[in-house]
Amino acid sequence: MAFSRKDLLGMRDLEVDEIETILDTAESLKEINTRSIKKVPTLRGKTVVHLFYEPSTRTRTSFDIAAKRLSADTYSISTSTSSMVKGETFLDTVKNLEAMQPDVFIIRHSASGTPHRIAQRTKASVINAGDGMHEHPSQALLDMLTIRQHKGRLDGLTVLIVGDIAHSRVARSNIWGLTKMGARVVVCGPPTLLPSHLEHLPVTVSLRLEPVIPEADVIMVLRLQKERQGQGLLPSLREYAAYYGIDSKKLAHAKPDVLIMHPGPMNRGVEISPEVADGPHAVILDQVSNGVAVRMALLYLLVQRDESAD
Amino acid sequence: MEIVLRGGRILDPQRRIDRIGDLIIRNGVIHELVWEPHAVSPSSQTRVIDVTGKWVVPAWVDMHVHLREPGEEYKETIMTGTAAAVAGGFGAVACMPNTKPVNDCAAVTSFITRRAFEQGHCHVYPVAAISKGLKGEELAEFGELREAGAVAVSDDGRPVMNAALMRRALEYAKAFDLLVITHAEETALSQGGHMHEGVMSTRLGLQGIPAAAEAVMIARDVLLAELTGGRLHVAHVSTEASVWILREAKRRGIPVTCETAPHYFTLTDEFVEGFDTVYKVNPPLRTRRDVEAIKEALADGTIDVIATDHAPHSLLEKDTEFQDAANGMIGLESALPLVLNLIEEGVGDPLDILAKVTWNPSKILGIPFGSLRKGAPAHITIIDPNAEHVIDPETFQSKGRNCPFRGWSVKGRAVMTLVNGLVRYPFP
Predict the structure, then answer these.
(1) How confident is the model over B280-319, as pLDDT tens digits?
(2) Known catalytic residue at A59
(3) A chain contacts of residue B273, beta-carbon cutoff 8 Å
(4) DSSP secondary-structure letter at B329?
(5) Which of A58, B102, B331, B335 is the most exposed place for a label (fewest CB within 10 A)?
(6) C-alpha span between B419 and B405 (Å, rounded)
(7) Phi, psi dihedrals of residue A147, rounded to the nearest 5°
(8) Which residues touch B193 (CB under 8 Å, ≥6 apart)?
(9) Residue B41 pLDDT more than 80?
(10) Which residue in A109, A166, A197 is closest to B198 by CB distance?
């Protein structure tokens, strides 16, 4: 099918066939990443601007590599190098860049909703690379691609998301994406890290890991932000690791072919033990590889829409 | 000088009068109400205004507005704010003290009353601060503030977190017959929040403010009102839990009154969906269930007053990330049709609903408004209840454009506002 969106802002508003198109496109582009010369001319002459207003290594590099492998010209602006430090607003920065005729803005911002706000004000395509606690759609797509590669399907699987659901954009995007594709999502974490009114989202909630581990085909471990303890949401990291950390002892009750995923960066010994992170069930580095393919697919589909509109 | 308002539907909520008649104004005072049509034969000195098909009601009173002067005149001034008031049908407003400098001393109160006298289009009643600098530490000088013209005290925008200070405020205010208006918010619960905590905040990834942040503070303050016997008024009530606490407090005979604002009975947190900062307000827009509870409380009299919490902001504060945007929406020029809509929805009859914007706030503030009885000052609003129009903030007198009702098709508008018998709207 043709992909006709201008922007990719979140998983919540994507249709099932659009998700399939993105995953299939990513699958077909994956091969480029294994060539000795990893570059195709698809986006030659196109301009991609990265606006990363929050620290990021893997997402930013992944998008940059994806754009360059498709031969786009890329430019990076971050908080420390932008005129924000001179008092310019984010919108003014974007308006000025807009005047230089970019084709795509890739936006990471600490405030929920920023990519949506910018998308309404610019002709360029906007990709949400993570906004506040809201969504991180490319992460969910690479997670879904990884699951599909290992399990052959998404439909009918049970995916357990463990940890700080309340502050996680990765969890939100995955909840929408996975359930649309027919997976069942179970979320588990201490009640202080679960958002309010979860019962209105398409998820099953468990406050303890033990009963839900055996059901899981996939366990998605979320990074615990250590400052949550300072905010009074957790008594100690030690207790968190004991009850919600994924270690081999807890994994002994899991399905033999369970997949362990983590969006990174990991706090080894807190939410995931080193044995599990490096163990046979872990597909964490596959996720990273798939990230490039998914982001190539997104850039290709958004820019190609633009071409067909001309 | 005599004005005859001829043939209108005269609605006086204070005395529960609702009938067709003529209203005669002489020397700025209501001279006579005449029920036989055309009984009055006008002299050459008389201005006769035909108000057939219109409502003649006491001028509306908004007991909760922000006029931003002194200090933030780029957002609003006493002149523009009061122009917005009369255009919206209001003949009096009470303005909150969070100006720059804060209205916590007689000098600032006097400045406001003087500026209002010189430039205002309607009456302005200053609400002074409870605590010096709104810091919640020391009481402001209530006696001097009262003498300078303050009608109430409030740290609006900020709650008084120290319960002992709130107790002292309620006690001390009794000496000067000042109303204490509470901004009910437990900040340890609301801290970091940008919208109502619920399904929508979870979906949008915005930190939420639980309904309990408001209700626990109301519970504290009604208990303090019971302890002290001070007159307490709860500002901008927005939740179901707040309503049941207030209902119970009133049942117990605690001296408490309260208000809500049109957006709390018209909008829900679902409007935040697109991250539009025009919907960012404190307390935040709540759920449908809360909206229904607010309407029930309006219907059964638990909520005494509808005020707008008119809070103008410039684009500087609003055209930014949702989490960084200022709280507040304007309300003076959109309130009237939204309030009348309550009658349409069956929340109350015209007299019940009009009481909440006329007699009740006047009585609570102790100001000479809200009545059409003979001898009262002629503060009158003439309403065309059937005027259909589309709300367009670009035509507003207010400097604020942060109106969430832009583009709404509504029914009812003020066609004339008289203050002391003088036509203050439409503008000459």
Answers:
(1) 999 999 999 999 999 999 999 999 999 999 999 999 999 9
(2) yes
(3) none
(4) -
(5) A58
(6) 27
(7) -65, -45
(8) B201, B207, B208, B209, B210, B213, B284
(9) no
(10) A197
With a pLDDT cut of 90, the percent of chain B lying above it is 97
pLDDT in tens, B332-354: 999 999 999 999 999 999 999 99
Active site residue A86: yes
Catalytic residues of B, which ones? 309
- Classified as helix, coil or strand, B335 is helix
Q: pLDDT tens digits, residue range B112-136?
A: 999 999 999 999 999 999 999 999 9
pLDDT of residue A80: 72
Predicted confidence (pLDDT) per residue in A177-223, tens digit: 999 999 999 999 999 999 989 989 999 999 999 999 999 999 999 99
Candidates A257, A285, A6; CA nearest to A122 is A6
> CB contact, 8 Å: A171 with chain B?
no
Q: Please pick, among A25, A47, A59, A158, the residue that the annotation labels catalytic.
A: A59
Which of A117, A132, A196 lies nearest to residue B202, judging by beta carbons? A196
pLDDT > 80? residue B4: yes
Mark yes or no for CB contact B203/A201 under 8 Å.
yes
B37 has pLDDT over 70: no
Average pLDDT (A46-68) is: 95
Q: Averaged over B361-370, what is the pLDDT?
A: 98
Which residues of B are less than 8 Å from A92 in CB distance? none
Cα–Cα distance, B91 to B417 (Å, whole number):
7
Contacts of B321 in chain A (CB under 8 A): 90, 109, 111, 113-114, 117
Q: Does A7 touch chain B (CB under 8 A)?
A: no
CB contact under 8 Å between B202 and A12, yes or no, is: no
User: How close B11 comes to chain A (CA, Å)?
Assistant: 45
> What local confidence, expressed as pLDDT, does residue A199 receive?
87
State which H helix or E strand residue B106 sits in. Answer: helix B106-119
A267-289 average pLDDT score: 97
Q: What percent of chain A has pLDDT over 70?
A: 97
In angstroms, the CA A298 to CA A22 distance is 7
DSSP assignment of chain A equals -----S-B--STT--HHHHHHHHHHHHHHGGGGGSSS---STTTT-EEEEEEES--SHHHHHHHHHHHHTT-EEEEEEGGGSGGGGT--HHHHHHHHHTT--SEEEEEESSTTHHHHHHHH-SSEEEEEEETTTB-HHHHHHHHHHHHHHHS-STT-EEEEES--TT-HHHHHHHHHHHHTT-EEEEE--GGGSPTTGGGSS-EEES-STTTGGG-SEEEEPPPPTHHHHTTS-S-HHHHHHHH-B-HHHHTTS-TT-EEE--S---BTTTB-HHHHTSTTB-HHHHHHHHHHHHHHHHHHHHHHHHHH-
Measured in residues, chain A has a length of: 310
Q: For the residues A95-99, what does the mean pLDDT come to?
A: 93
Name chain A contacts of B202, Cβ cutoff 8 Å.
166, 195-198, 200-201
